[in-house]
Amino acid sequence: MALEHAILVSLLEKPGSGYELARRFERSIGYFWTATHQQIYRVLKRMAADGWVDVLDVAQQGRPDKKEYSVSPAGRSALAGWLHEPIEPESVRHEIAVKIRGAAFDEPAGLIAEVERHRRMHEDQLAHYLAGQARDFPPGTGEGPPGAAPDPGRELQHAVLRGGIAYERMMTAWLDDVLDTLRRLGPGG
């Protein structure tokens, strides 16, 4: 996936400035795609030159004007084309997994601190995702009024977040298993 597609999706959800878009990447799009502010601004400039986004100069009181970006018909067409293209499943590459296998040729217990560090990082990410879910998708807010059609954008955003939550739970459980194994194999194990 190119950053352009993530930006198009975000701008279709809500037009905004480059700064606002970067904040959305930090808050929610970051669940599945990360980008720096510089990358976002560089790609927005290219997308504007390619005609994928429209740019509106918005005057601000007491501050410099800002550029508000929205998806153009050409951008919608590009996104639709990409949505209909098949993609291959991503292969998982975890350097920590290679280190774990390599520990068989060294002292397995020597890897415990590094695995614990990775587990804390996944536990922190899980807490971040769960806080975002509590903030953005409190129980009972997704249904809407009785008989109302569901909001596909909101429901799909939540589905992606649930995927991130499931992944982080899986990683912490796996790392717990690895820690148990390393401790069992270590000195006195």
UniProtKB/TrEMBL annotation:
<protein>
    <submittedName>
        <fullName>PadR family transcriptional regulator</fullName>
    </submittedName>
</protein>
<dbReference type="Pfam" id="PF10400">
    <property type="entry name" value="Vir_act_alpha_C"/>
</dbReference>
<dbReference type="InterPro" id="IPR005149">
    <property type="entry name" value="Tscrpt_reg_PadR_N"/>
</dbReference>
<dbReference type="InterPro" id="IPR036390">
    <property type="entry name" value="WH_DNA-bd_sf"/>
</dbReference>
<feature type="domain" description="Transcription regulator PadR N-terminal">
    <location>
        <begin position="7"/>
        <end position="80"/>
    </location>
</feature>
<feature type="domain" description="Transcription regulator PadR C-terminal">
    <location>
        <begin position="92"/>
        <end position="182"/>
    </location>
</feature>
<dbReference type="InterPro" id="IPR036388">
    <property type="entry name" value="WH-like_DNA-bd_sf"/>
</dbReference>
<feature type="region of interest" description="Disordered">
    <location>
        <begin position="134"/>
        <end position="154"/>
    </location>
</feature>
<dbReference type="Pfam" id="PF03551">
    <property type="entry name" value="PadR"/>
</dbReference>
<dbReference type="InterPro" id="IPR018309">
    <property type="entry name" value="Tscrpt_reg_PadR_C"/>
</dbReference>
